[in-house]
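Before drawing any conclusions, I needed to go through one protein's amino acid sequence and its backbone structure tokens, quoted below without any editing.
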Amino acid sequence: MTDDHTGRYGRDLFEPGHPREAERIDAGAAAYDPVTTRRLRALGAGPGMRCLEVGAGTGTIARWLLEEAGVDEVVAVDRDTSALAGPAGPRLRVVTADLTDEALEPGSYDLVHARFVLMHLPQRRRIVSRLAGWLNPGGRLLLGDAVELPDPLDAGSAYRRTMDAMWEALHTTIGTDISAVPAYPHVLRAEGLTGVAAELYCPPLTAGSPLAGFWSQTWQRMRPELTATGRVDASTVEEALAYLASPGLAELGPGMLMAWGQRDPDGGRPPH
């Protein structure tokens, strides 16, 4: 993948100004926030901590860190921060920036979290190194990205064909690549982090669930890109959308792998 895809996620597919974009993001957050916040709590998120929320979206995790975990400060970074508009308060600092910008130096933190961000970006290995470098001694890094668990016996259903078309369209259009996500624990160890571990979570994909709503809105917005792959036609996409809303929906949808690690509490910096 080349840098040609840099910054194209919003411009080419999911425009921040779209009237339903915040709703789409919030549907995904409703599916994944509970397990994310549980892991953040287990990693010690709480008073006395300064946190960096990368790709903050509509701010659901940033608000949880402040209001529920009670951290001292959250710096919320995103390329587009319009969904974070409104009174930030003294403990929330909103930074509009591109994570691929080498000039970005947001400071040092006790906790850094990035969810569904790295998989869309070029040079993600370099970005992980930078995130690890922003940790205070003893600070923790939590990464979360998508993994696909397709049914090996189902290659021809409308659902499977549409989901496969989506991943191909995301890759060819904006550079999304989830193939290396399972390697995140190895990447964190290579950065010199300790206590590295990972877990996989697949939220229920049932009719009327937030996740079904997220995929439905995503596929509707991507119709031209889906059919352009040649994997599906318009009728296949319609069949897949109808299936997402049907009581008979029964799929193991894409999951999220979370990997985490800690910088040496004695102050040793990760290798670069």
